[in-house]
């Protein structure tokens, strides 16, 4: 361990909060492991679990296209508050929140004696807790899509149940549990039906007991004097009833050879291959490398902390990428009232979370983004038609992973006006194609849809004959002297140019038309402070103290502005970065700042921004970021 970076982390005590539980996941199921020998809890999550609403009338894009020309007229005529009335009057509607399923719970009494240690191995995804002769091992199989837990101890005696009682669980849930004895243990089930809907989810756990006795003890089972217990758990989201017997049979079919070792080997063959593609070695002090994660977090200047956070970041990104990309909370939550709904935020957060996919050799993350994009394209088309009256596709700023409709907006967050989202979400798919030297036809088709939107949307011009992006929105900021919905946000200009030119590269037969449209967009504006202006429209003043850096989209993730090819614009962009405040001191703002500074060759600013994150209260003991 002393000569190489540590590919894992550890703690000397069980987790007290779900935020400090060690994490495992396969991109579909997730597990939060507390590691308490007397109340061994594993919170189970599943990527598709979002709480439905009985009233979905407001979960559609607003029908505003007929009013768009009048709005454009008013904005072009100088009415800088015109967009505040471009709404259908609905209140702010958050996307449906992500929530946990339940927790498997093993309760026993007695002190196992001996030292305690809780570890997670990033190379395998296995979380292990050891206290004396008691050992619990948990992983989530990428090969078999099942949560696996294996507990061993002499004379193992405990109660087993599936417990739905987690913080924030709403009233009115229809909860039903079941337990039946099997030849070598028990089969437990927990069905939870959401109020006011026929949608439900069911968890099924197969318990395989070695030695001792097993009896039913509703709502679960009681195991006495065993030597080992193996649990296999899956969650299904469904309407109607789930065939629990069939689910149990499917779990039993996974039991071959030495079950735990066989399951782990199948999973590790996939997980380890992906995780070990990249390693960061900063030649850290061996003594610091040996510290628990909580101890390293207290040493923000430590190279060992950077090594371990790099490793943990790749591990958590890989583990939460599959069915969907990582949510704001990855794949994990222990509370039904998940912060920010546990949503996908497309105007910075998801983009920053998955930004390293190509450079960190994690195509699994890009493929998960692609799954989200392609599943939601029909909804993106609805957004384009309803709000803008165009063909093509417009991505929403927020999503629950199911719906791609743009319905999360308000006067202060007119996110339905944002047109740059599709380009940002497609950028990692384009990067993936460039990395692999191939062109995915699905990416090509999506790019064409975005270009069609711009064909129909970019029809207004200024006095110089340049196209105008109107209305235009710079997430999540506003001009100092105007309202949020404005004209020619720098991000919108960069995204439109990039989308049109990228679509042209994928579609030579339409390249001339789309490149010509891109060439008619206006250049960026440099303001009186020498900074790249957030709005390239005369008279709109910059608001510098804000966590988002949307106006520097051309610097990162694009390469429209570089110190080599566009030195004057790069100088203006650097000035804009210097003037930008931190507003509410959000971690994503600091990291966005660091990425931009790296592109602009400012190492000192990169180090300062990373220092703000490392010294801030942004990581839990699990090394999962708080936001």
TrEMBL record:
InterPro entries, alphabetized: 6-hairpin_glycosidase_sf, 6hp_glycosidase-like_sf, GH95_cat, GH95_N_dom
Domain Glycosyl hydrolase family 95 N-terminal stretches: 10-214
Ranges of residues in domain Glycosyl hydrolase family 95 catalytic: 260-615
Protein's name in the database: Alpha-L-fucosidase
Natural source organism: Streptomyces pharetrae CZA14
């Amino acid at each position: 361990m002393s000569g190489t970076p540590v590919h894992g982390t550890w703690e000397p005590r069980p987790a007290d909060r779900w935020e400090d539980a060690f994490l495992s996941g396969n991109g579909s199921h997730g597990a939060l492991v507390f590691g308490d020998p007397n109340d061994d809890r594993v919170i189970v999550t599943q990527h598709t679990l979002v709480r439905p609403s009985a009233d979905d009338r407001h979960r559609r894009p607003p029908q505003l296209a007929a009013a768009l020309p009048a709005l454009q007229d008013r904005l072009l005529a100088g009415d800088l508050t015109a967009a505040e009335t471009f709404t259908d009057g609905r209140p702010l509607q958050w996307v449906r929140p992500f929530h946990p399923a339940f927790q498997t719970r093993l309760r026993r009494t007695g002190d196992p004696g001996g030292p305690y240690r809780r570890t997670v191995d990033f190379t395998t995804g296995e979380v292990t807790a050891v206290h004396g002769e008691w050992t619990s091992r948990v992983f989530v199989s990428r090969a078999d899509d099942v949560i696996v837990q294996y507990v061993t101890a002499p004379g193992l005696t405990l109660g087993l149940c599936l417990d739905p009682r987690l913080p924030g669980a709403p009233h009115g849930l229809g909860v039903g549990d079941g337990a039946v004895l099997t030849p070598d243990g028990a089969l437990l089930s927990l069905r939870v039906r959401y109020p006011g809907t026929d949608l439900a989810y069911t968890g099924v756990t197969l318990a395989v007991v070695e030695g001792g006795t097993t009896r039913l003890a509703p709502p679960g089972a009681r195991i006495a004097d065993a030597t080992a217990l193996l649990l296999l758990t899956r969650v299904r989201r469904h309407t109607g009833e789930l065939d629990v017997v069939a689910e149990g049979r499917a779990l039993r079919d996974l039991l071959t050879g030495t079950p735990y070792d066989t399951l782990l080997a199948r999973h590790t063959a996939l997980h380890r291959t992906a995780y070990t593609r990249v390693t960061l070695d900063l030649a850290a002090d061996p003594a610091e490398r040996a510290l628990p994660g909580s101890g390293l977090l207290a040493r923000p200047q430590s190279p060992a902390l950077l090594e371990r956070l790099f490793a943990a970041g790749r591990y958590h990104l890989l583990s939460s990428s599959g069915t969907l990309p990582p949510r704001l909370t990855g794949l994990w939550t222990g509370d039904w009232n998940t912060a920010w709904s546990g949503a996908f935020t497309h105007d910075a957060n998801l983009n920053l979370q998955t930004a390293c996919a190509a450079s960190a050799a994690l195509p699994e993350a890009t493929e998960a983004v692609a799954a989200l994009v392609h599943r939601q394209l029909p909804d993106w088309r609805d957004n384009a038609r309803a709000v803008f009256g165009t063909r093509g596709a417009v991505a929403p700023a927020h999503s629950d992973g199911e719906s791609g409709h743009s319905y999360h907006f308000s006067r202060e967050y007119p996110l339905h006006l944002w047109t740059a989202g599709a380009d940002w979400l497609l950028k990692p798919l384009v990067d993936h194609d460039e990395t692999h030297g191939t062109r995915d036809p699905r990416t090509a088709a999506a790019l064409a849809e975005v270009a069609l939107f711009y064909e129909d949307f970019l029809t207004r011009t200024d006095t110089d004959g340049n196209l105008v992006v109107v209305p235009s929105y710079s997430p999540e900021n506003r001009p100092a002297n105007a309202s949020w919905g404005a004209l020619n946000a720098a991000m919108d200009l960069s995204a439109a140019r990039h989308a049109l030119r990228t679509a042209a590269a994928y579609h030579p037969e339409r390249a001339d038309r789309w490149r010509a449209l891109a060439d008619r967009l206006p250049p960026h504006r440099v303001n009186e402070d020498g900074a790249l202006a957030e709005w390239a429209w005369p008279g709109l003043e910059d608001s510098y103290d804000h966590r988002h850096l949307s106006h520097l989209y051309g610097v990162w993730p694009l390469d429209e502005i570089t110190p080599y090819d566009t030195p004057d614009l790069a100088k203006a962009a650097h000035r804009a970065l210097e003037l930008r405040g931190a507003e509410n001191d959000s971690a994503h703002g600091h990291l966005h700042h660091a990425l931009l500074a790296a592109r602009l060759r400012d190492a000192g600013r990169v180090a300062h921004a990373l220092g703000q994150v490392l010294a801030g209260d942004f990581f839990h003991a699990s090394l999962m970021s708080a936001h």
